[in-house]
């Protein structure tokens, strides 16, 4: 299988992207049309990749973790983001719509059962999908676990992470008047959905920069300035989901339903120094899931691109391919 490998950096190797053998726009109802692609081996073991955000979109780099000789790799852009349309739309856009969309894709592609691979918000969606359709999932591979609990939102948007990055937090918080800072998610919501595009883009960039600045352990806090269209979709969708608690039934929804997926094998890959999704939730998830194994990566943050996280994910997918 080494012929499929391309060097990413000196630390590890990743599979190079392979051209999709199938791209399509799939109507899923409610006026939404999703971008869906398949690459790798058309007869191979199917794995669906659930991107983060909500609102992040898929990218060719997400194919790199799978040996294309073995895996049939399915990527798609969730409602409102990436190449899916309408762009940045929050209408008919909830966790339950995305679960139904994932199942529609499986049926459309004629797949009986598949692996589900997701990181950050993608891990949330993977868990909710598996708990809803446990008979359709062979394995779960999760990275940077996020379970849409209030404590996680408070950590990132009520000053927890800001204690480690005070100068970056001050920039993010400083755009909001002092009398609104008791609930930054709500304060940003008012501006991200103001109906004034220039204002929405301004606050969307600030929202995205705060998250991007903390994604990597090697970050210097700069965060970069994302393109306006991308930032607006990313920030509006994330904020829409967060202000609604992920549209889940109660705080702790996922942990309360772990009995539904107790039989599904799982691998959790978690950065020890993840500032966006701290390791506590990954540990709690593994403790409630006897059929899982957790890999704490000693020198890594949150990002999928963290070298040691990427290396672990490649090794995991290679190992599962041989199982």
From TrEMBL:
Its EC number is 3.4.11.5. It holds the Pfam family Abhydrolase_1. The keyword Cytoplasm applies. The active site is at 120 (nucleophile), 274, 302 (proton donor). One of its GO terms (biological process) is proteolysis. InterPro entries: AB_hydrolase_1, AB_hydrolase_fold, Peptidase_S33, Pro_iminopeptidase. It is found in: Cytoplasm. Coiled coil: none annotated. Keywords: Aminopeptidase, Cytoplasm, Hydrolase, Protease. NCBIfam families: pro_imino_pep_1. This is Proline iminopeptidase.
């Amino acid at each position: 299988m080494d012929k499929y490998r391309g060097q990413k950096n000196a630390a590890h190797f990743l599979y190079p992207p392979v051209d999709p053998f199938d791209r399509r726009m799939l109507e899923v109802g409610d006026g939404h049309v999703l971008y869906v692609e398949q690459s790798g081996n058309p007869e191979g073991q199917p794995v669906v990749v659930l991107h983060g955000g909500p609102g992040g979109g898929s990218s060719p780099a997400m194919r790199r973790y799978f040996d294309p000789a073995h895996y049939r790799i399915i990527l798609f852009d969730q409602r409102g983001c990436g190449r899916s349309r309408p762009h940045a739309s929050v209408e008919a856009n909830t966790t339950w719509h995305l679960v139904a969309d994932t199942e529609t894709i499986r049926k459309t592609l004629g797949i009986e059962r598949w692996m589900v691979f997701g990181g950050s918000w993608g891990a949330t969606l993977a868990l909710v999908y598996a708990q809803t359709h446990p008979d359709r999932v062979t394995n779960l591979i999760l990275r940077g676990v996020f379970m849409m609990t209030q404590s996680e939102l408070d950590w990132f948007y009520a000053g927890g992470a800001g204690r480690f990055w005070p100068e970056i937090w001050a920039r993010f918080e400083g755009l909001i008047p002092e009398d609104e800072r008791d609930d930054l998610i709500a304060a940003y919501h008012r501006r991200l959905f103001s109906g004034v595009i220039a204002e929405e883009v301004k606050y969307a960039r600030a929202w995205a920069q705060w998250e991007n600045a903390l994604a990597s352990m090697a970050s210097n806090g700069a965060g970069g300035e994302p393109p306006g269209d991308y930032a607006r979709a990313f920030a509006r969708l994330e904020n829409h989901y967060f202000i609604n608690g992920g549209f889940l039934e109660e705080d702790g929804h996922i942990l309360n339903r772990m009995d539904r997926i107790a039989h599904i094998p799982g691998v959790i890959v978690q950065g020890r120094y993840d500032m966006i999704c701290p390791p506590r939730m990954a540990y709690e998830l593994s403790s409630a899931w006897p059929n899982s194994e957790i890999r704490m990566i000693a020198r890594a943050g949150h990002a999928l691109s963290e070298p040691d996280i990427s290396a672990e994910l490649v090794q995991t997918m290679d190992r599962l391919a041989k199982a």
